[in-house]
Amino acid sequence: xxxxxxxxxxxxxxxxxxxxxxxxxxxxxxxxxxxxxxxxxxxxxxxxxxxxxxxxxxxxxxxxxxxxxxxxxxxxxxxxxxxxxxxxxxxxxxxxxxxxxxxxxxxxxxxxxxxxxxxxxx
Length: 122
Hints:
Elements: E1 2-7, E2 10-13, E3 18-26, E4 30-39, E5 46-52, E6 58-60, E7 68-73, E8 78-83, E9 92-101, E10 109-112, E11 116-121
Parallel strand pairs: 2-11
Antiparallel strand pairs: 1-3, 3-8, 4-5, 4-9, 5-6, 7-8, 9-10, 9-11
């Protein structure tokens, strides 16, 4: 089994910064990618950022480009999301998502973290 544990959320004023972390643990053979999604109250979950684990290819939602930076630590199986110039519309629960294989012949499985609250006050 694989677990994703997020940390780093909190309350911050508009214009401020936060750094989220998501650590994967358990039976991990390989990671395909790790991503961040968010869900604001009354809205659907939306994509924020993704990083391909081996090649490092990165993708961002247009709404966060230039403000958020995704990075990874392969040795720690951890992905980070540095969030700068935060806006009130960034308020949401942020979820970590990962595509992980538990063995060579196993299929890649989608895992989700429990979520961490980010609240930006204006």
